[in-house]
Design goal:
Layout lengths: L1 H9 L6 E2 L10 E2 L3 E5 L2 E7 L6 E2 L2 H9 L5 E6 L5 H13 L19 H14 L3 H31 L3 H10 L8 H5 L4 H23 L1
Parallel strand pairs: 5-6
Antiparallel strand pairs: 1-2, 3-4, 4-6
Helix pairs in contact: 2-3, 5-8
Pfam families: Ribosomal_S5_C
Protein name: Small ribosomal subunit protein uS5
Organism: Streblomastix strix
C-alpha cells in the first residue's frame, strides 16, 4: 500500500481551472476545451456555465469532482466499458489544461518601430532641410514617379474607352506590371502604387545619404 501511495504522489498533476464567460468569482470549470485519449477511448472536456454541474459518466464524474472541477460538459467515444482506459483518458484530458497558453499568460513584448518610422524625422529635420543636393535628388525622384503615375492613369483611361467588359478589365489589372519600380507579385497582392512610391523615395534617399557619407 505504501508503494502505491508513493507512486500516486509522484504521478500528481496540476489542473488549471478557468471560467465560462465573465471572470466572476472563483474558477469553476476547465479553462479551454481539452481532449484525452487512452487506447480506443477518447474523452473531451468542454467548459460549462456556472451551475451546470458535472455532465459526465459516474466514473469520470468522481475523478472530475476530486480534481476540483465544478461545471463541465464531457463527450466520450470508443470502448468506454474498459474502465481503466476510460479513467486514464479523463486523467490525460485534465493534464492537458496546463499545456495551453491562454491570452492572460502571453508575455508582453515592446515592438520596435520600423526603419521608416525611426528615420523619417531624422531625414526631415537634419538631412533634408540642410542639404540642397539631397532636396534636388528628392524632387527628381518624386517627379519621375509622378510621371509613371500619370502614364499609368493614361493607359487605364485608354483601356476603359476601348472596353467596358468587366472580365477584361480584371484581366488587364492583373497583367499590369511596372517592373522598374515593383514586381508583379506586389500588384497581385493589391499593393497601392502610392505607398510603394513613398517607400522607394525613402529607400533611394537613404542610399544617396550613404553615398554622400562614403564620398566625404
Amino acid at each position: 500500500i505504501r508503494g502505491v501511495v508513493i507512486a500516486a504522489k509522484l504521478a500528481m498533476i496540476p489542473i488549471r481551472l478557468g471560467y465560462w464567460g465573465n471572470n466572476i468569482g472563483q474558477p469553476h470549470t476547465v479553462a479551454m476545451k481539452v481532449t484525452g485519449k487512452c487506447g480506443s477511448v477518447r474523452v473531451r472536456l468542454v467548459p460549462a456555465p456556472r451551475g451546470t454541474g458535472l455532465v459526465a459518466a459516474p466514473v469520470s464524474k468522481k475523478l472530475l469532482s476530486i480534481s476540483g472541477v465544478e461545471d463541465v460538459f464531457t463527450s466520450s467515444s470508443g470502448k468506454t466499458n474498459t474502465m481503466g482506459n476510460f479513467i486514464k483518458a479523463t486523467f490525460f484530458a485534465l493534464s492537458e489544461t496546463y499545456k495551453y497558453l491562454t491570452p492572460d499568460l502571453w508575455p508582453k513584448h515592446a515592438f520596435p518601430q520600423t526603419p521608416y518610422q525611426e528615420n523619417s524625422q531624422w531625414l526631415a529635420d537634419e538631412i533634408y532641410n540642410n542639404n540642397i543636393e539631397l532636396k534636388d535628388e528628392f524632387l527628381k525622384l518624386e517627379k519621375q514617379i509622378n510621371g509613371v503615375n500619370m502614364n499609368r492613369e493614361h493607359e487605364k483611361n485608354n483601356y476603359n474607352d476601348r472596353s467596358k467588359d468587366n472580365s477584361a478589365r480584371i484581366k488587364y489589372k492583373a497583367d499590369q506590371t511596372h517592373s522598374q519600380y515593383f514586381g508583379a507579385s506586389e500588384i497581385s497582392r493589391g499593393t497601392r502604387f502610392k505607398n510603394v512610391s513613398h517607400g522607394i523615395i525613402i529607400f533611394e534617399l537613404i542610399k544617396h545619404i550613404r553615398k554622400i557619407k562614403s564620398n566625404n
